[in-house]
Design goal:
mainly alpha; elongated
């Protein structure tokens, strides 16, 4: 695919996926993921499969790749695809979750409320400044 279409983000993502399964996250896999973002930064269909995998490598990723991964989340959240946004949130570690939630702070309260509801349905909790806590310090759906 890349030989015929070297600017195809899906091809670079496929290469990343294959490489990370064989070698783990490192400079080569980071480069492949970066190329996927470079050529397909806002393609929702690709973001839906790319973000959960990118978020798993969040702590090892460069600041640029972290920003791309959180932007994938922000795009999906802004499109109000909350079940998918929760899948991203669920795939992320603690540090990544905080970065994801930061991207939602300017969203309408109703959107944050819906997202919170879907998070609670997965048995997860939110503790973040943009999600006022209920009695036990965690945000749960109402």
């Amino acid at each position: 695919m890349l030989a015929c279409a070297p600017t195809e983000g899906l091809g670079w993502f496929g290469s990343y996926w294959a490489e990370i399964r064989q070698a783990g996250f490192g400079p080569r896999t980071a480069e492949l993921l970066g190329l996927s973002y470079r050529f397909a930064p806002h393609e929702a269909w690709l973001q839906l499969i790319r973000a959960p995998l990118a978020l798993r490598a969040f702590n090892a990723a460069s600041p640029e790749l972290r920003d791309y991964a959180t932007q994938d989340f922000a795009d999906i959240f802004q499109a109000r695809l909350f079940p998918s946004a929760v899948t991203f949130y669920q795939a992320a570690g603690t540090e990544a979750r905080a970065a994801l939630l930061e991207r939602t702070c300017t969203a309408p309260e109703a959107d944050r409320e819906l997202f919170s509801h879907f998070v609670a349905e997965k048995g997860l909790r939110i503790r973040h400044r943009c999600y006022p806590a209920d009695g036990d310090g965690f945000r749960m759906s109402r």
